[in-house]
Amino acid sequence: MSWVYRPKHPKANENGMVERSELYEDRAWTVSVISDSMEPTKHHGTGRMISSKREFSRETRRNGFIELGTEKIQPRKPITLDKGERREAIRRSIYELRNGR
Questions:
Q1: What are phi and psi of 17, to 5 degrees?
Q2: Could you tell me if 22 and 4 are in contact, meaning their C-beta atoms sit under 8 angstroms apart?
Q3: What whole-number distance in Å separates Cα of residue 97 and Cα of residue 90?
Q4: Phi and psi (nearest 5°) for 22?
Q5: What stretches of 1-68 adopt beta strand conformation (E)?
Q6: Phi, psi of 34 (to 5 degrees)
Q7: What pLDDT, on the 0 to 100 scale, is given for residue 33?
Q8: For the chain, which residues make up each domain, given as ranges?
Q9: How far is CA 76 from the centre of its chain?
Q10: What are phi and psi of 16, to 5 degrees?
Q11: For the CA atoms of 64, 70, 74, 75, what is the dihedral angle to 10 degrees?
Q12: Could you give the dihedral angle defined by the CA atoms of residues 73, 74, 75 and 78, in that order, rounded to the nearest 10 degrees?
């Protein structure tokens, strides 16, 4: 059991403390609705004006684009280098960093 200080809450005790479960019991039964409609937005890939979130996503996928945050994470494939190749890759990287790349 945990307590929260809310002196103006109707269920507060003489010290102004309310049990956390009583404080948030009304929120357990609330319903949230996320609308599909949005302000008409110009699709950057096609130039169409779209006012539906779902249609915007379909348009994005239909044209081969990727929505950031929805792409599947691909595991990196390890690069196998022998000792000489690794040494040369490190040498090349250092050279590029020193020369402004």
A1: -100, 140
A2: no
A3: 11
A4: -75, -30
A5: 3-5, 17-19, 37-42, 49-52
A6: -105, 120
A7: 84
A8: 1-32, 33-67
A9: 21
A10: 85, 15
A11: 170
A12: -150
Residue 45: the pLDDT is 87
Q: Is 69 left (phi over 0), alpha (psi -120 to 50) or beta?
A: left
The Cα-based distances of 100 to 48, 70, 88, 94, 97 in angstroms read 41, 34, 19, 10, 6
Question: Which amino acid is it at 88?
Answer: E
Give dist(CA 74, CA 62) in Å, integer: 21
C-beta separation of 49 from 40 below 8 A: yes
Q: What is the full per-residue pLDDT of the chain (101 aa) written as tens digits?
A: 788 888 888 888 999 898 887 776 656 566 778 899 999 999 988 899 999 999 999 999 999 888 887 667 788 888 888 999 999 999 999 999 999 87
Q: Say how far apart CA 84 and CA 75 lie, in whole Å.
A: 26
Tokens found for residue 83: 């000792």
